[in-house]
Amino acid sequence: xxxxxxxxxxxxxxxxxxxxxxxxxxxxxxxxTFPVVGHLRFLLEKAGPELRQYxxxxxxxxxxxxxxxxxxxxxTAKRQNPYFGFGTDTDVDxxxxxxxxxxxxxxxxxxEAGAPIPCTKTLGAWRNRPGAFRPDSIVNxxxxxxxxxxxxxxxxxxxxxxxxxxxxxxxEGGISPxxxxxxxxxxxxxxxxxxxxxxxxxxxxxRMLETVSKGPVKAIELKLSQGAKPGMGGLLPAPKVxxxxxxxxxxxxxxxxxxxxxxxxxxxxxxxxxxxxxxADASGLPVGIxxxxxxxxxxxxxxxxxxxxxxxxxxxxxxxxxGGTGAGPLVFTDHVALPFFHALGSVYRSFCEAGLSxxxxxxxxxxxxxxxxxALAANLGIDLINVGREAMLAAGCIQAQxxxxxHCPTGVATQNSWFERGLDPTSKGVRVGHYIEGxxxxxxxxxxACGAQHPALMGPESLSIVCDGHEMQRAHDWYGIDPxxxxxxxxxxxxxxxxxxxxxxx
Length: 506
Ligand SMILES: Cc1cc2nc3c(=O)[nH]c(=O)nc-3n(C[C@H](O)[C@H](O)[C@H](O)COP(=O)(O)O)c2cc1C
What we know:
It is a single chain. The protein is α/β, with parallel strands linked by helices. It folds into two domains: 1-54, no CATH class; 139-502, Alpha-Beta Barrel (TIM Barrel). The chain is built from 18 helices and 13 strands. It has helices at residues 3-24, 29-33, 39-54, 67-77, 151-164, 205-212, 243-249, 269-283, 296-309, 330-335, 340-353, 371-379, 389-394, 417-421, 425-449, 475-478, 483-486, 491-499, and strands spanning 98-100, 139-141, 167-169, 184-189, 217-223, 234-236, 257-259, 287-292, 315-319, 361-365, 384-387, 463-467, 471-474. The strands form three sheets. The chain has an eight-stranded parallel sheet with strand order 2-11-10-9-8-5-4-3. Strands 1-12-13 form a three-stranded antiparallel sheet. It has a two-stranded antiparallel ribbon with strand order 6-7. A hairpin with a 3-residue loop joins strand 12 (463-467) and strand 13. Helix 5 (151-164) packs across helix 15 (425-449). The longest helix has 25 residues, at 425-449. The chain is globular. Bound molecules: flavin mononucleotide.
């Protein structure tokens, strides 16, 4: 046999063995979907730091999540070494850079793996809802519908939520069997009323109650808008409306499904509050709203109306303009709605002025799934943090930014069965759980370093922001939030008493 033929046979044989191994292993979605060539990604990832020294950019250049941020999520999710060597490569003097001011006397505690960190407020307490409860985890999974995400990804998120003891928001696509793997749910209702929809597309209370009874639903979230595309409707094209998706949403199979840009059930603040109360009365559950922040008058009027009437949402989820979506126009993703921390300042101030900031539970989302941002949010008035894309990263997303094409190579944001097959929900569910536990752990470590027993108790003196490239300012002042509202006198004792034996311990 000619020598070159031997080489071809050997290479072909080795490739076949590698391909079979790749297709049948369950650890790496990329290899299951792209056998043999998928190894290139891992090689390039490994050689990345060396290559970047000669060719490209730094660790913080990529967006929406930098290489460092993604590496932190991946290693945390895999329980590998999440540390970075040699010291920071961040420019710590640039305007906007956040610095935590540690205490000379940190809290001396070790942190158990999976330590829960309960919320300091009770969801639904303000309105005395029968289903009021205090969430066990201040980190929870943000709404991402079945339809925008694959069934395997939804299942991985739900299993991760069960493992980490946190809440899993369904997103606006209804509740599917993929949501029923042990994780507690927040059922989201959007303008399409999926899972709570009459045949003519309007809201149906009976259908909502039917859906809520399908699973462990702990709260209901009424979505007004999301940061990436507020004030805009959406369309799920006919080919994506599979039998499973149609069943979860309560729509006919194989027909286009439109979500309008506004609600048909109400059209002003009084109507919104009445609707919230109707959902809460019928279900007994805490009910909140999710919104991106645009015109400030809405928040001023809503909080005043709530203070005057003593009625309204139990929680408010503030989504930053930098938030994610399965698909959105560039002008909306880039230019509509305030960035998260400015949005928080604006909403929180309105509720403070109405005297309700201690009653309403504030939830935040918009790149908060990383320790510094999450800790900052927790100290500026956010009670619960929702993580969306960071949880997708933990489930195997590589930030290919192809969610809108249906060709997500990792099987996370697709309905393509070959791509979806690559994602093993069980192993990825464990990673999602590890990531949430890991984020909580970092929050606790930061809190302890600052001498606080809960991440929300670090206090205004512990968070500084560089302004104008040289001066340090308190983060509260930078974002215009009054620390006497977020950290009133006696709050520390109140929080510790409320947490009782649930307080995070070592
Ligand atoms: C693929 C995808 C689907 C989403 N679907 C929904 C949805 O159904 N309802 C919703 O309120 N937000 C949706 N979002 C927005 C997220 O819930 C979240 O608010 C936003 O991405 C900000 O959080 P993050 O920066 O942690 O991703 C979606 C985001 C992504 C990336």
